[in-house]
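hey so u asked for the seq, here:
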Amino acid sequence: MKSTLDTTLIHGGLTTDSKTGAVNTPIYQTSTYAQSALGEHKGYEYSRTKNPTRDGIESLIAEIEGAKYGFAFASGMAAIGTVLSLLKSGDKILISDNVYGGTFRIIDKVFSNFNISYAIVDMRDSTLLESSITSDVKALLLETPANPLMSVTSLEKVAKIAKSKNILSIVDNTFMTPYLQNPLSFGIDIVVHSATKYLGGHSDLVAGLVALNNDELAQKIGFLQNSIGGVLAPFDSFLLIRGIKTLGLRMQRHCENAMEIASFLSTHKAVKKVYYPGLKTDIGYEIQNSQARGGGGMMSFELESGYDYRIFFKSTKLITLAESLGGVESLLCHPASMTHASIPKEIREKVGISDNLIRLSVGIEYAKDLINDLAQAIEKSKA
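ran it, structure tokens below
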């Protein structure tokens, strides 16, 4: 891991109050600011437009992603929705073949109303991706590793193709966080985070972040952020800054636990398949190893036919069945009926999101306790 990044997580951005020297960013819980005269103020007029606490998190995400600009939103979907608002009527966007269900939903059910179309492409196949870019395609949106099958796509290849076609490349970096992966360094244009997950880290806030380098794009995103108004509140900005301070420590433990659990599951007789790019046997391992600093804390797996996944979900004692991911506690999810339920069944099955797929967000508990819980739940699920 980068020692400088570990330090930047704690000291980066505008997160020390310049007026008082407070080491923790104050919560500026105000909607408006006094002006000394018409057109004269101290850089702040209205908190939808600009707020000192939000300045802290926006400058911090920019620094740890290696970006010039950062923007904070009320949720990951507010962040993605704002970025997608860069598109115009008649434009088309290509999305990777397994993405978060909410991302698919907003494109399929909301932006389609504005004559913005989409196509689903396996972006791991660079030849297929390049041939899929028609004249109306203006952007590529992908996750790597992707949710929930953990498929890995080459950031460098995607960025190169996007630049050659003069279109935007957008990467959701939620699973990896800036601690493990920095898409901008590979030429990607825009990075998006659901900061609700690992960046917040404690399942106590909902937030979204965007980071980028391009001056013109940043001006457009800033305009859209202010105009649409889905900004992150001061208190949540404060919580997010606090969460990021321990991101390095947490991600190290997430990765260590995930590797131990993935190794356990991959040799278990009841487990049909494990999806985790940190395993050397994983199809995406080589690319993951070339562009990320670890396998992360997310994995998915399938049980053999003689085991009932429904009973498995009911049988864990320590690991919680719940939406979301990336908190200090381990969470189980059934993608087909939870996170990816908004994706039509035929599309889910085509890309490999089966009904018996189980997604696991590995927390920072003692790994052996998690393994024991999984083992007993698997045993109870035996038909």
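Residues 247-266 form the longest helix (20 residues). The radius of gyration is 21 Å.
lmk if thats what u needed
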